[in-house]
Design goal:
Helices cover 3% and strands 69% of the residues. By secondary structure, the chain is an all-beta fold.
């Protein structure tokens, strides 16, 4: 084949298989749990810090059944959990104006289930793909519950607690894609 033959080649048609985004959805979910820390761990005096991670473990698509305006609205049902680690102080010794004690940690896994509405340009079905774009704790509030009686001689502010009320706002963003075949011309 000489140079002239290389430049005289005609384009060839190929078919590419590509994921195409058809819809997006997002949701905030309030997850509430009361956790018992003590026993077996020592009771909580003060929370030092908290780290957490949201993990989505399972999801399934509920296809849209009708069109609202120019969008198809379906749902994604999902399961997940929040791994939450609480570092806290406890009290082992006290004086009339001071307390001391070591740091402890309490780790819990909080299961949750939810659904996300998905607005799409076209219908989708249960065989399409779900991609979790983000899943994180957007906000949280902890409240200490079940106070223990003060030890004799301890400062009146040296209260420890056995339970932790956790209110957690989980934010989930996702998209649905479907596979499409696209014809392209390839120069050889």
């Amino acid at each position: 084949m000489d140079d002239k033959d290389i430049f005289d080649c005609k384009p060839e048609k190929k078919i590419l298989q590509v994921p195409v985004v058809v819809g997006y959805g997002e949701k905030q979910e309030l997850v509430v749990k009361v956790s018992t820390v003590s026993p077996p761990s020592p009771p909580i005096f003060r929370i030092v810090d908290i780290d957490k991670e949201v993990v989505i473990t399972n999801f399934s698509i509920v296809p849209p059944t009708c069109k609202t305006g120019d969008k198809w609205i379906g749902k994604v049902i999902l399961d997940g959990y929040i791994d939450k680690n609480v570092n806290y102080k406890t009290i082992t010794d006290y004086a009339c104006d001071a307390v001391n004690g070591p740091l402890f940690q309490f780790t819990t896994r909080i299961d949750f289930a939810s659904f996300v509405d998905v607005a799409a340009r076209e219908p989708f079905d249960e065989y399409d793909n779900v991609e979790i774009l983000e899943a994180y704790v957007e906000g949280e509030k902890e409240e200490l519950l079940e106070p223990n009686p003060l030890q004799e001689g301890a400062p009146d502010w040296a209260v420890t607690y056995n339970k932790l009320l956790e209110k957690i706002i989980v934010k989930i963003k996702l998209k649905i894609t479907k596979i499409e075949h696209v014809k392209v011309l390839v120069d050889l």
